[in-house]
Amino acid sequence: MILVVTGTGTGVGKTIVTAAVAANAVARGERVAVLKPAQTGVGPADAGDLAEVERLVPGVTTRELARYPDPLAPLTAARRAGAVPVTPAEAADVATKLATDHDLVLVEGAGGLLVRFTDEGTLAEVAALLDAPVLVVAAAGLGTLNHSALTVEALRAHGLTCAGVVVGAWPAEPDLAARHNIADLPVVTGVPLLGALPDGAATLPVGEFAELARHTLAPALGGGWHTPQA
């Protein structure tokens, strides 16, 4: 199976959610690969998103196709670096090859769904080429209902299937907006809420992270979802 992971924006927790989904699959004995087509905002020797996934989920296969130093959209960052951008076709080809010897391939995008890899290609095109469902990672607080609804609407406009929404960083002390958003997200998006990972989950040791993934993602993502307590 191939699952594409996108976000409603930058910094919403795509990588930690990707790692949690991977951890649940590894716990079931599945072979898992995580593909990051383009990593921005890191230098050649810097640890990127995949280093975090590798630390939290030992045994997972990771692939990064390109990295660019400027913290910008992949196409813009590639141009500033004088590098050739990664195309959606290249990303889809690598994901397809990984799927031949892995039970689950997770393709983590950069930023949001319509951030450009090339002049005309976005993560939506990658998902379309793969005919893969897309998991949306959202923020918890004010504004997330609009951002999430727009992302799901864009998926539908591209003929793509939305697997559901996961809150990437549920606060220890959720405010009024967050407490209402957790109930309103599935209503305004029309897709299921599939979990909410606590803020700071990335700092946990491997064993604790695996346990957290089981308890904060829904059965559709290999866990036993329960509503976070305010």
Automatic annotation (TrEMBL):
Gene3D superfamilies documented for this protein: P-loop containing nucleotide triphosphate hydrolases
Gene Ontology terms for molecular function: ATP binding; dethiobiotin synthase activity; magnesium ion binding
An example GO BP is: biotin biosynthetic process
Q: What pathway is this protein a component of?
A: Cofactor biosynthesis; biotin biosynthesis; biotin from 7,8-diaminononanoate: step 1/2
Identify the residues that bind substrate. Answer: T40
Q: What class of enzyme is it?
A: ligase
Compartments, as annotated in UniProt: Cytoplasm
Q: Which NCBIfam families match?
A: bioD (TIGR00347)
* Purpose: Catalyzes a mechanistically unusual reaction, the ATP-dependent insertion of CO2 between the N7 and N8 nitrogen atoms of 7,8-diaminopelargonic acid (DAPA, also called 7,8-diammoniononanoate) to form a ureido ring.
Into which family does the record put it?
A: Belongs to the dethiobiotin synthetase family.
What does the annotation say about its assembly with partners? Homodimer.
- Write the protein's name: ATP-dependent dethiobiotin synthetase BioD
